[in-house]
Design goal:
This protein is of the alpha/beta class. Among the domains are: about 100 residues, Succinate dehydrogenase/fumarate reductase flavoprotein, catalytic domain (Flavocytochrome C3, Chain A, domain 1), CATH 3.90.700; about 90 residues, Fumarate reductase/succinate dehydrogenase flavoprotein-like, C-terminal domain (Methane Monooxygenase Hydroxylase, Chain G, domain 1, Up-down Bundle), CATH 1.20.58.100. Helices cover about 30% and strands about 20% of the residues. It has 13 helices and 25 strands. The strands form 7 sheets. It has a 5-stranded parallel sheet, covered by helices on one side. Strands 22-20-15-24-25 form a 5-stranded mixed sheet. It has a 4-stranded mixed sheet with strand order 2-13-12-11. Strand 12 and strand 13 form a beta hairpin. Helix 11 runs antiparallel to helix 12 and helix 11 packs parallel to helix 13. The longest helix has 22 residues.
C-alpha cells in the first residue's frame, strides 16, 4: 500500500510560508508558467537542483508550430492525431495547434532566438510531420536557448522568488483541495509552503530506466506525489523510447536528435545495410515507436548491441552548422559524424501519460494543476508527435495561469494537518544498488517490448522494495527512490492492464483479439481506487 505521505510531520511544528502561486519545476513549463503568473501574482518557483537543470535544457530538435504559409493548423492537428494512435483528445490538440503560433511568438518576445535563413525562421521536418514546421536554435541546442531566455526573465522578475536545490516531498491536501507543498531545504529542514494554486511542472521519469536520454533530475517525482495526493493519472504505460541515443563505449546515452534523420540521415544495421524500407513507408521518419522497434529487431537478428546512423553523404559544413552540439559531443568520443557512422540504440526518452488535466491544466484536485511532461492533457495520446512537447508546455502553461487568476483566495479550515505513521525503520544503506536494480527491472521487464509474463515478474520484483514506505526518509536520494518505486509500479501495472499494442506500448503477446478490447480506452489509476478504464471520447 502506497501511503498518502512519504514522511511523518506536524504542520503546527514547522515554519509556514505563504505565496499566491507555487510552481514546482524549472523546465520550459515551470519557467513560462511562473512568468505568466507573476504578471499579477506572487510566485515561488522551486527547482530540485539549479534553475537551468531540466529535461528542456537537453532538448535538441526544436518546437513544432505552424509558422509558414504552406502549412496549416489543420494539418498539424491531423499529424498529431495520427501519431497519437487513437488516444488523443481532439479538443486538446485543437487548442495546441491553434494557440501554438501565438505562444511561440511570445517566447521570441521574451528573448528566445531561433535560427533563421535569409531573414526567415529556419524550419525543419521531423518524423511523422507532413511539413517543415520545427523551429530550432543554435542548430541543435533549442532547449538550452529557451531555458536561457526564460531563466533570465525569471531571475529578473520582482514577483518571482526562486528556491534552488529544494526538494518537494509531498503535496498537502485537505478534502480534495491542494493547500500547498511540504518542502525540504538544502540544509535538511522542512517548511510548509502554502499557496492559492500549485502547478506541477516536474517533468518526466527517464531515470526509471537504465538507459535514458534524461538528466539525473528526471525521477518521476511529480507523478508520485500527485498519485499520493489522490490525483488521477492516465495512460502511464505509454513511454516513448527515442530510437537514436549514442551507444558507444565510455559515452553516456546522449540524444542524437530526430532532426538528424529529418536532414537526411539513414539507419543501417551492423552489416551496413539500410533497413527502414522493410519496416515503414516513411522510412527513417516513421513514428518513433516503429523506428525504435525496427532498430531492436535488427540488433537481435544480427546479435548486435547497436545500429548505425549515417549522415556522411551530406556536406560536412551543413552537418557542423546544423548540429554543432551533436558534432562536438561525438567528436569528443572519437566519432566524426561527417565521416563516421554513429552507433545508436533506443533509450527511454519521454512519457506520454501523466497527471490527467482538463483543457486549462487543472487536475481533479482543486487548486492543483499540471503542465509539461508530468501532465496528460490529451495532446499526445499513445505516441508523441516529435517536438510537440515544448509547444504543449507553453500553450497549457498560459491556460493554467488564466484559470489560476479566476480562483478565490485559499481559506484553510484551521485544522492542523498531521501525518504520523510512526515510521522508525531505517532506510536501506545500499540505495545506489537498489536504484540500479529498479532501473534494470524496468528495462528488461517493462521496456520497449512487453508481455504479461515479464510484466508480472517486474511488478513482483518492484514490490519487494515496498518497505521503503515504512522507513524514516531524510535525504533527497531516499525520497527520490521512493518516488521512482511508486512511478515504476504504476507504469508496470498500467502496462499489464492494457492487453493491446498501441503507440508507444507494444505487447508481444497482444491479447486484444476482438474489437471491443481494442477500442480506444484510457487506463486510469488513482490511489485507493486502483486501475480503471475510460473510453476515449
Amino acid at each position: 500500500m502506497i501511503p498518502q505521505y512519504l514522511v511523518d510531520f506536524d504542520l503546527s511544528e514547522m515554519p509556514i510560508r505563504d505565496t499566491e502561486v507555487i510552481v514546482i519545476g524549472s523546465g520550459i513549463a515551470g519557467l513560462f508558467a511562473a512568468i505568466q503568473a507573476a504578471k499579477n501574482q506572487r510566485v515561488v518557483l522551486i527547482a530540485k537542483q539549479r534553475l537551468l537543470e531540466s529535461n528542456t535544457r537537453y532538448a535538441q530538435g526544436g518546437i513544432a508550430a505552424v509558422m509558414s504559409e504552406d502549412d496549416s493548423p489543420e494539418e498539424h492537428h491531423r499529424d498529431t492525431l495520427i501519431a497519437g494512435a487513437g488516444l488523443c483528445d481532439s479538443k486538446a490538440v485543437h487548442v495546441l495547434v491553434h494557440e501554438g503560433p501565438a505562444v511561440v511568438r511570445e517566447l521570441m518576445e521574451l528573448g528566445t532566438v531561433f535560427d533563421q535563413e535569409n531573414g526567415h525562421l529556419a524550419l525543419t521536418q521531423e518524423g511523422a510531420h507532413s511539413h517543415r514546421r520545427i523551429l530550432h536554435a543554435h542548430g541543435d541546442a533549442t532547449g538550452y536557448e529557451i531555458v536561457r531566455a526564460l531563466a533570465e526573465q525569471v531571475k529578473a522578475h520582482p514577483h518571482i522568488e526562486i528556491w534552488e536545490h529544494h526538494f518537494v516531498i509531498d503535496l498537502i491536501t485537505e478534502q480534495e483541495e491542494c493547500l500547498g507543498a511540504l518542502v525540504q531545504t538544502p540544509e535538511g529542514s522542512r517548511v510548509f509552503l502554502r499557496g492559492n494554486a500549485t502547478v506541477l511542472c516536474t517533468g518526466g521519469g527517464g531515470q526509471l530506466y537504465r538507459y535514458t536520454t534524461n538528466p539525473e533530475v528526471a525521477t518521476a517525482d511529480g507523478l508520485a506525489m500527485a498519485y499520493r495526493a489522490g490525483a488521477v493519472l492516465r495512460d502511464l504505460e505509454f513511454v516513448q523510447f527515442h530510437p537514436t541515443a549514442l551507444c558507444y563505449a565510455g559515452a553516456p546515452r546522449f540524444l542524437i536528435s530526430e532532426a538528424v534523420r529529418g536532414e537526411g540521415a539513414v539507419l543501417r544495421n551492423s552489416l551496413g545495410d539500410r533497413f527502414m524500407p522493410k519496416y515503414h513507408p516513411q522510412l527513417e521518419l516513421a513514428p518513433r515507436d516503429i523506428v525504435a522497434r525496427a532498430i531492436v529487431s535488427e540488433m537481435e537478428t544480427l546479435r548486435s548491441s547497436f545500429a548505425y546512423l549515417d549522415i556522411t553523404h551530406e556536406k560536412p559544413d551543413l552537418i557542423r552548422r546544423r548540429f554543432p552540439t551533436i558534432y562536438e559531443t561525438c567528436l569528443s568520443y572519437g566519432l566524426d559524424m561527417t565521416t563516421d557512422w554513429i552507433p545508436v540504440a533506443p533509450a527511454a526518452h519521454y512519457m506520454m501519460g501523466g497527471v490527467r488535466t482538463d483543457l486549462h491544466g487543472e487536475t481533479n484536485i482543486h487548486r492543483l494543476f499540471a503542465c509539461g511532461e508530468v501532465s496528460s492533457t490529451g495532446v499526445h495520446g499513445a505516441n508523441r508527435l516529435a517536438s510537440n512537447s515544448l509547444l504543449e508546455a507553453l500553450v497549457f502553461g498560459r491556460r493554467i495561469v488564466e484559470r489560476v487568476g479566476q480562483l478565490q483566495p485559499l481559506s484553510c479550515s484551521g485544522h492542523v494537518k498531521m501525518s504520523s505513521l510512526g515510521r522508525t525503520d531505517k532506510p536501506p544503506v545500499d540505495l545506489a544498488e537498489r536504484r540500479l536494480k529498479l532501473q534494470k527491472t524496468m528495462v528488461r521487464k517493462v521496456g520497449l517490448r512487453r508481455n504479461a509474463v515479464l510484466l508480472k515478474q517486474g511488478i513482483e520484483d518492484l514490490k519487494q522494495e515496498m518497505s521503503i514506505y515504512k522507513a524514516k526518509l531524510e535525504t533527497m536520494e531516499q525520497l527520490e527512490f521512493a518516488n521512482m518505486l511508486t512511478a515504476s509500479l504504476l507504469i508496470a501495472e498500467s502496462a499489464l492492464a492494457r492487453p493491446e499494442s498501441r503507440g508507444g506500448h507494444y505487447r508481444e503477446d497482444d491479447l486484444a483479439a476482438d474489437d471491443e478490447r481494442r477500442s480506444a480506452r484510457h487506463m486510469l489509476c488513482q490511489r485507493e481506487k486502483g486501475m480503471l478504464e475510460e473510453i476515449n471520447q
